[in-house]
UniProtKB/TrEMBL annotation:
<dbReference type="GO" id="GO:0005506">
    <property type="term" value="F:iron ion binding"/>
</dbReference>
<dbReference type="GO" id="GO:0020037">
    <property type="term" value="F:heme binding"/>
</dbReference>
<dbReference type="InterPro" id="IPR036396">
    <property type="entry name" value="Cyt_P450_sf"/>
</dbReference>
<keyword id="KW-0560">Oxidoreductase</keyword>
<keyword id="KW-0503">Monooxygenase</keyword>
<comment type="function">
    <text>Cytochromes P450 are a group of heme-thiolate monooxygenases. They oxidize a variety of structurally unrelated compounds, including steroids, fatty acids, and xenobiotics.</text>
</comment>
<comment type="similarity">
    <text>Belongs to the cytochrome P450 family.</text>
</comment>
<keyword id="KW-0408">Iron</keyword>
<dbReference type="GO" id="GO:0004497">
    <property type="term" value="F:monooxygenase activity"/>
</dbReference>
<dbReference type="InterPro" id="IPR017972">
    <property type="entry name" value="Cyt_P450_CS"/>
</dbReference>
<keyword id="KW-0479">Metal-binding</keyword>
<dbReference type="Pfam" id="PF00067">
    <property type="entry name" value="p450"/>
</dbReference>
<keyword id="KW-0349">Heme</keyword>
<dbReference type="InterPro" id="IPR002397">
    <property type="entry name" value="Cyt_P450_B"/>
</dbReference>
<dbReference type="InterPro" id="IPR001128">
    <property type="entry name" value="Cyt_P450"/>
</dbReference>
<protein>
    <submittedName>
        <fullName>Putative cytochrome P450 hydroxylase</fullName>
    </submittedName>
</protein>
<dbReference type="GO" id="GO:0016705">
    <property type="term" value="F:oxidoreductase activity, acting on paired donors, with incorporation or reduction of molecular oxygen"/>
</dbReference>
Amino acid sequence: MAWNLTSSTFLAEPQPLLAQMRAAGPLVETRVPLIGRTWVTTTDAAARALLKDPRFVRDPKGATGRTMRQTLWFLPRFLSPMLDSLILKDGEDHRRLRSLVDRAFARTAIDDLVPDFVQMADSLLDSLDPARPVDLKAAYARRLPLLAICSLLGIPAADRERVTRWITPLSDPGPTTILRAMPGLWRVLRHFRADLETVRRTERAGLIRELVRAEDEGGRLSEEEVLSMVVLLFLAGHETTVHLITDSIASLLSDPQVREEALSDPARLPLAVEEFLRFHSPVMMTKMHYAREDLVFEGVPLRKGSRVSALLLAANHDPARVEAPEELHPHRRPNAHLAFGFGPHVCLGMQLARAETRVAIARFFRRFPEASLIEQPAYARRFGIRGYRRLLVRLRP
């Protein structure tokens, strides 16, 4: 059976199809646009097993003999840093890079950046016209994460507007997203390649400096590795948070009871954000994992080179793991969701995404407590991402 994971029906109400997939087994086959036949997990247990199984690798070369650069031969050469990033590394290569990057992150405390995030959110909200309808995704949820990542990286204020303008097309839905984003990506990579020299000369504060300085017994990050990490933070950290903020605010505007439970006490908001992560699962599935040998996984024989992905949405809605998974409970405990993945490749920027989302929600409802939806938002049909096309809101009655 062909499982359609991009239909508007599935994105709006995933439980019926997920139940059919689970009934077919913990591992089922589907088709991924531009990639082809792929296996996906349907349960929490299968997802966790995949994400810690050393028989699967992220770098296709270990399984197919072809690097990601060779696999995606049609992409322009300037995108090479994106095709050799941390998320595509395995084994010792991954451990070395992750260790260096974790050390850099440890020296850049997210909590210390929260006042900057608050100021950015307030500035964006100041620019909205309360008398007119607004697409909150475009005007707020998309712009805040970009500015927050600029703050984290230490990008000078004078450069932030153009950098965010170059990156923005990547969060637009549709099959031609990467093509429309190409000119901006070229400018971004050129800009940061030159910017690394500035950081080395001036010791400018921020995560870029910490990445440049990161060092252990194995050496330092190369220029290409630093560049790939900077771009990865924008690509992975930005889009995920755009949809998380949009989905969360939409839920709060749609259900007065959920809104009351989540916002009546500021101490409750962190728990609510975890439930929004589980319920919406903005990143529906992980990057591809490749079987590096003939093997049997979850009872299914797989050939060397077979592609497998953990369907995070299915794991987060698995009734064997989550009680009443189809219901959104802002105070759900425990809530061991897989929205940020699991195992050695767990999302590096998860604390950043949580902080940005908490700030975005709190500042929006503080400024516009009577905001309401103009229309029920529709999901964008983009494989692997569960997010709305737009979020039309009336800020005041």
